[in-house]
């Protein structure tokens, strides 16, 4: 077994890593102040998301938001919760599709080594990380360091997500689909427009959000029995908290498809770092024959292309429509590290 020094080494020679626990309120301030110096790549570890999750689902575990500071300010952040001698990500896999730690550019390796040393020194003996993508710092830095040290490391696939690389034009997107998919999509869009007056709009202002969100929740619960059971009072509160928090940040996008003036389908999305994330959706079951649930997503994709976004992330789940819309699979893992 190759030892890793317990001393927490800084990227600045002669300066130790300074780990300390931060509050959610403080973390929000750090996020706004460090947008250019820390790589906040993961939507689901942004402070507004973590705050909403903690408010409705986080009770019962010790929240430990580890902020790392150097002489020039924050150099990293690990959103953790502690259960006994085990550390895991803050955030639940059922509402956080991806999770990761946050580092400054070119410091991930040093941060990972210092994080291991800090956690070992504070009595943590096991790390369990859910919702890890292959481009996450956990995968690219933490896991290789632990393997090289000869520690007990395991990773197993826990799910799959789908992403669409968006071209510059709608016609170019259609050309990415195979002939059958392209024909079916055009046929469904034609049938929808033949059914009446069609309008798709993106709602992203606080003034319109409250009423629109009520419509979204109704559509979400009416389409499927499973979805209705999923949308408990705490879950509804969580969704609304996300909507309010990310509307303030101009990231929340509620897509609404109307037929003859009545909302028949809706998408709940977040725009972040040139990507639109499709978090959830709902539709009116009496319009199912018109494929309004699918076509609301399609129109959201069209809107994202028009807005210059480069990726449409369909997030976790293996629903067949994701492949038919051109989504490419991305594996998601559960990783475990036992510290000596």
Please tag this protein with its features:
30% strand; elongated; alpha+beta; 340 residues; Aminopeptidase; disordered N terminus; 2 domains; single chain
Q: How does this structure look, described?
A:
- With 340 residues, the chain is an alpha+beta fold.
- It folds into two domains: 18-161 and 331-338, Gcn5-related N-acetyltransferase (GNAT) (Aminopeptidase), CATH 3.40.630; 167-309, 3-Layer(aba) Sandwich (Aminopeptidase).
- Helices cover 38% and strands 30% of the residues.
- Strands 1, 2, 3, 4, 5, 6, 7, 8, 9, 10, 11, 12 and 13 form a 13-stranded mixed beta sheet that branches.
- β3 (73-83) and β4 (86-89) form a beta hairpin.
- The longest helix is centred in the middle third of the chain and has 18 residues, at 206-223.
- The radius of gyration is 22 Å and the shape is elongated.
- The model is unreliable at 1-15 (pLDDT under 50).
């Amino acid at each position: 077994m190759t030892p890793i020094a317990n001393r927490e080494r800084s990227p600045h020679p002669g300066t130790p890593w300074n780990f300390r626990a931060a509050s959610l309120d403080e973390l929000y301030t750090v996020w706004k102040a460090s947008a250019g110096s820390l790589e906040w790549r993961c939507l689901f570890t942004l402070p507004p998301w973590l705050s909403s999750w903690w408010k409705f689902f986080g009770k019962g575990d010790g929240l430990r938001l580890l902020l790392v500071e150097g002489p020039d300010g924050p150099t990293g952040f690990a959103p953790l919760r502690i259960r006994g001698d085990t550390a895991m990500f803050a955030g639940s896999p059922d509402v956080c599709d991806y999770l990761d730690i946050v580092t400054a550019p070119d410091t991930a390796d040093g941060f990972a080594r210092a994080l291991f040393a800090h956690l070992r020194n504070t009595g943590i003996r096991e790390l369990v990380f859910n919702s890890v993508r292959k481009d996450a710092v956990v995968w690219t830095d933490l896991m290789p360091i632990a393997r090289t040290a000869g520690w007990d490391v395991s990773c197993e696939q826990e799910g799959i997500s789908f992403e669409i690389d968006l071209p510059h034009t709608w016609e170019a997107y259609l050309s990415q689909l195979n002939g059958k998919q392209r024909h079916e999509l055009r046929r469904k869009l034609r049938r929808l427009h033949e059914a009446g007056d069609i309008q798709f709009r993106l709602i992203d202002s606080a003034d319109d959000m409250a009423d629109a969100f009520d419509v979204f929740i109704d559509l979400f619960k009416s389409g499927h029995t499973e979805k209705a059971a999923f949308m408990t009072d705490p879950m509804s509160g969580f969704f609304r908290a996300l909507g309010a928090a990310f509307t303030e940040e101009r990231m929340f996008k509620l897509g609404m498809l109307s037929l003859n003036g009545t909302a028949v389908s809706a998408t709940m999305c977040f725009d972040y770092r040139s990507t639109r994330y499709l978090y959830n959706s709902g539709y009116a079951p009496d319009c199912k024959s018109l494929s309004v649930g699918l076509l609301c997503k399609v129109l959201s994709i069209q809107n994202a292309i028009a807005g210059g976004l480069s990726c449409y992330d369909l997030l976790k789940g293996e629903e067949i429509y994701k492949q038919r819309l051109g989504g490419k699979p991305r594996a998601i893992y559960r990783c475990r590290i036992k510290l000596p």
